[in-house]
Design a protein that fits this description.
439 residues; mainly alpha; 18 helices
């Protein structure tokens, strides 16, 4: 009954917040859910914290998000997001996506750890260097759930959205591998060779994801019933996730592989499927599931935020979490973009324009929280509180502040790009005219 009551409360909050936002505030729906559920979370926890009155709301504010995500819905959310990738745009931007997913996450995590370690030394935080790098591995990877659910609604071009989504989807595998590797150095786990661990997590996930998806898709394309196809896709992603987690592979990355494989194969038989699925039931189902699970997740993020304790360093952590996150992301994207090369950047962006957009559009979400919540088993309580507080601060800042303003930043950059292109065209025309005159 308690679980059913919790579900009723969460869905009721989603409905009320959604209707109020549509009527009065008109923010992107997912950002509104985070903002107003955060306010509700404060109202639920504050009376007990300040001793005004005691009421039993622990079953709402102390929901185990780690198990909700990693042992429940994360694989379905990742599959749904990956299945929406525009393959033509993705293939044309494959090089920047891969380099951003691999290099940016690695560079940003390491640079974040270095900056946070220097900050820790300056203010005497109880963190060593590898714990700071572990924090970088937690908050550096951009979140595909937040990216696909929020950025798609901001009016960005398809090529830009493709790069942001592609990076968000693929850097989770890199981020999880880095997290496990550094965790083995910080915690009591056995150290493993990084190359072996990378191969185990990534290659294993690719092999299982592609292998199982290939087999299940053979059933998928042989049935003309959209409901059967939906059930096949559900069994596919759930079984792949379970198998990978059991074998020690990255279930997160495997879920992304499944979604992209199904998206690619569905695109190839698109005309055939439109004959018997003219109402697009398959795609509509995954859109609805994605929307419901995202809504529940964002509400849970808000109402559970203040159920955790605060570190005594919280007022120092607020500016540090924001500034170090932005600096590390900026540095990582810059280095990766220089390696990609100016001519390979999407939409004819300059280096500054592309780095600025990719830095500000980097949203974090449930994955970061799932990783940090798993650290309480091997970290001292005061150290764990610092990591937990920084992660929550980073997630809320990126979703509420960056998520609300990414559309404006994008349009500012587009105007600057247009002005730059006009000036470059004028210079080119003058040079052509001068050459013609001299001849």
């Amino acid at each position: 009954m308690e679980l059913l009551l919790l579900l009723v409360i969460l869905l009721s909050l989603i409905i009320v917040i959604g209707m109020a936002n549509t009527k009065f505030f008109k923010m992107p729906s997912d950002i509104a859910l985070v903002a107003f559920s955060l306010i509700i979370g404060i109202l639920l926890v504050a009376p007990e914290r300040f001793g005004w009155w005691d009421w039993d709301v622990e079953f709402i504010t102390e929901v185990d998000i780690e198990h909700f995500l990693l042992e429940g819905v994360l694989c379905f959310m990742l599959f749904s997001g990956a299945s929406k990738v525009h393959f033509s745009k993705f293939i044309s931007n494959i090089k920047p996506i891969v380099l951003l997913a691999l290099l940016t996450t690695l560079i940003s995590s390491t640079f974040y750890g270095l900056l946070f370690y220097l900050f820790s030394l300056a203010v005497h935080l109880p963190l060593n260097f590898w714990t700071c790098v572990l924090l970088g591995c937690i908050v550096s990877p951009t979140d595909p759930i937040a990216a696909t659910s929020i950025l798609n609604k901001l009016g960005l071009s398809k090529s830009v959205t493709s790069v942001i989504e592609g990076e968000s989807l693929f850097n989770d595998g890199t981020g999880v591998v880095l997290f496990v590797f550094v965790k083995s150095m910080v915690g009591a786990g056995q150290q493993e060779n990084f190359i072996v661990l990378l191969g185990k997590e990534v290659l294993g996930a690719f092999a299982v994801g592609l292998g199982v998806s290939f087999l299940t898709f053979e059933l998928f394309k042989r049935t003309k019933e959209p409901v059967q196809q939906i059930l096949i896709s559900l069994v596919n992603v759930a079984s792949v996730y379970i198998l990978c987690e059991h074998c020690g592979f990255s279930g997160i990355l495997a879920s992304v592989v499944c979604g992209m494989f199904y998206a690619f194969r569905c695109d190839r038989i698109k005309r055939e499927r439109e004959v018997y699925d003219h109402n697009h039931l398959y795609q509509e189902f995954w859109d609805i599931i994605d929307h419901i699970l995202n809504s529940i997740l964002f509400v849970l993020l808000g109402i559970t935020a203040f159920s955790h304790d605060f570190s005594k360093y919280i007022w120092l952590l607020i500016p540090a979490a924001i500034l170090i996150s932005l600096c590390a992301r900026f540095f990582g994207v810059t280095i990766s973009s220089l390696i990609v090369g100016r001519n390979r950047l999407p939409s004819n962006y300059s280096l500054t324009e592309f780095v600025s957009l990719m830095t500000w559009s980097a949203l974090r979400g449930g994955l970061s929280l799932a990783l940090v919540l798993g650290c309480h088993e091997f970290l001292a309580s005061d150290v764990y509180l610092v990591l937990l507080n920084v992660t929550y601060l980073t997630v809320f800042f990126t979703i509420l502040v960056q998520g609300l303003t990414t559309g404006k930043v994008y349009h500012i950059i587009e105007k600057k790009k247009l002005k730059r292109n006009i000036e470059e065209r004028k210079v080119h025309e003058k040079m052509t005219e001068r050459t013609f005159t001299e001849d």
